[in-house]
Amino acid sequence: MTLVMGVVNVTPDSFSDGGRYASHDAAIAHGRALVADGADLLDVGGESTRPGATRVAQSDEQSRILPVIEALAAEGAAISVDTMNAGTAVAAVSAGARVVNDVSGGLADPDMLAAVAGTDADIVLQHWRGHSADMYRTAVYDDIVAEVIGELGERVAAARAVGIPDHRIVIDPGFGFGKTPEQNWQVVRGLHRLVGGGHRVLVGTSRKRMLAVAASSAGIDLTGEDDLDLATAVTSVLAAQAGVWAVRVHEVAATRLALAVRTAWEGEG
Ligand code: PMM
User: What does the alpha-carbon distance between residue 141 and residue 180 come to, in Å, rounded to a whole number?
Assistant: First the structure.
């Protein structure tokens, strides 16, 4: 069964939800709604990673997300924290998070991996080649699937070296991070190879530019959120087909429905 991770962005500037959930109460209510829609995990983040976003002070990041994590964890939700900061990761785990989702794979903060090793949380190591101020500067590859697998392998080795066992490690190819839309589709075609490496794989295509680019090749103008969520639900099914552990999505209901139809199609086995 492919798990569904619902996104709770507690930021005033996230490109995909317009910062609508910037206040704690609204973020908590949004998290509850995602759980009601069937989210297995909630990914709570306070720093936008959108292209061109500026870094947020760690103290601001923590005051945005910690009350939200505490409240949702207290209600029994499984929480993941989307952060590149070791201090925030540790504080979030103390507040009840069970997973640390680091889009930089432990590269942005040299203390991250050791900090997570000292907790019992799982860690998501995402493929990343630098901060997002210049989105495509690092998007140069000879064989993108092999390079993503190789670079993630280095991050896994670094995590193991500080004592994080394989069963606590999840890898993520990082769609849109240092990759053009066309390169993202190449990574999609190699997803089964990532899964074949044996670690759990997380995939985040939700509302990303690659979907609008795919639609536009068919003459479809994909701009509305509903259309983007429909396209996302399709990628969730295809990711499930490739054997991923979980998909990270903004809108949970469409993905849950799409995955249920896939399960009926395939059978439980
Ligand atoms: N994408 C965004 C943020 N965090 N984390 C993981 N593990 N994988 C992703 O693809 C990913 C992520 C993009 O930001 P958004 O929440 O504003 O869409």
Answer: 11
Beta strand 79-82 pairing with 41-45 = parallel
Number of domains the chain is built from: 1
- pLDDT for 211 equals 97
- Which ligand 1 atom is at minimum distance from the Cα of 124? 7
Pocket test for ligand 1, best of 42, 207, 228, 248 (most atoms within 8 A of CB): 248
How remote is the CA of residue 204 from the centroid of ligand 1, in Å?
6
Can you give the pLDDT at residue 14? 47
Helices (H), the chain: 24-36, 58-74, 86-94, 112-117, 144-161, 181-189, 191-196, 209-217, 225-241, 252-266
Among 14, 41, 49, 201, name the best residue to mutate to test ligand 1's pocket (greatest count of ligand atoms within 8 A of Cβ). Answer: 49
Instruction: Give average pLDDT by consecutive 10-residue segment, the chain, 269 residues.
Output: 96 56 83 98 90 83 95 98 98 98 97 98 96 78 97 98 98 96 97 98 97 95 91 97 98 98 87
pLDDT at 131: 84
Residue 21 structural domain: 3-266
16 lines ligand 1 (CB under 6 A): yes
Active site residues per annotation: 208, 248
Q: Is the CB of 101 under 6 A from ligand 1?
A: yes
* CATH code at position 127: 3.20.20.20
